[in-house]
Amino acid sequence: MKPNYYVAHPWHGLELGPKAPDELDVFIELTPQDTVKYEIDKASGFIRVDRPQKYSNRSPTLYGFIPRTFSGEASGKHCSEVVGRPDILGDGDPIDICVLSVNPITHGNMILTVIPIGGLRMIDKGEADDKIVAVLKGDEVFGQMKDISEVPKALINKLHHYFLTYKLDPNSPSTGTVEITEVYDRVEAIKVIQFGIEDYIKKFVTV
């Protein structure tokens, strides 16, 4: 294989992997140990400090995104149809992913091979902002799980609570703009990923 002498952009330059969407290579921005919120800088591909985590919330899992996906028209339309509300849009970002691993991985800015097992249908300010849940391939504890129904309820509750509260300021009343309408299974997660791939191709590939 010809070597790549340049660092690939994590969103546009990384491949999904030959078994996508059943098995994916994903990019991790944030770990449970991080006390600040890191996020990819879309223009450069470098990791940027988005904001300090001012309060007690930290991500319960590894957190990042699926390369070459985009939450756009098809993603928003699918969310609208499922929840029965018109005019939900995609949030304009790559599809987010939470990765379960029993072994502590202490820094982000890395690629992992994962297996999707479900997700959280999150809507933020009227935009689809799905959080796919996956297991690290080969993980001794989580790696054998095939569906989110096998994950301990307490861990799903932690994810649920994190995403509903991680933007809140205790000194300001919540405006209720973020909601999670359901926790869905692996079959639905694959659909969400496929719509994200479709939106990416339409946005960045199709001329």
Give the full name of the CATH homologous superfamily: Inorganic pyrophosphatase
Rounded radius of gyration (Å): 16 Å
CATH architecture: Alpha-Beta Complex
Oligomer: single chain
| Structural domains: how many | 1
- For the secondary structure, the number of strands is 10
Give the mean pLDDT: 91
CATH topology annotation = Inorganic Pyrophosphatase
Number of helices: 3
Proportion of strand residues:
25-35%
- CATH top-level class: Alpha Beta
First and last CA, distance = 29 Å
State the shape.
Answer: globular
Order of helices and strands: EEEEHEEEEEHEH
Main sheet specs: 5 strands, mixed, barrel
Helix content, binned percent: 10-25%
Spans of at least 5 consecutive residues whose pLDDT stays below 50 are none
As laid out across the biggest beta sheet, the strand order is 1-4-6-9-7
Q: Helix/strand-derived class? A: alpha+beta
InterPro entries: Pyrophosphatase (IPR008162), Pyrophosphatase_sf (IPR036649)
Cofactor: Mg(2+)
Enzyme class: hydrolase
Organism: Leptospira bouyouniensis
Structural account:
InterPro entries: Pyrophosphatase, Pyrophosphatase_sf. It is an enzyme of class 3 (hydrolase). This is inorganic diphosphatase. GO terms for molecular function: inorganic diphosphate phosphatase activity; magnesium ion binding. The chain is globular. Helix 1 (73-83) packs antiparallel against helix 3. The protein has a single domain (24-205), classed as Inorganic pyrophosphatase (Inorganic Pyrophosphatase). 21% of the residues lie in helices and 29% in strands. The mean pLDDT is 91. The strands form two sheets. Strands 1-4-6-9-7 form a five-stranded mixed barrel. Strands 2-3 form a two-stranded antiparallel ribbon. By secondary structure, the chain is α+β, with helices and mostly antiparallel strands.
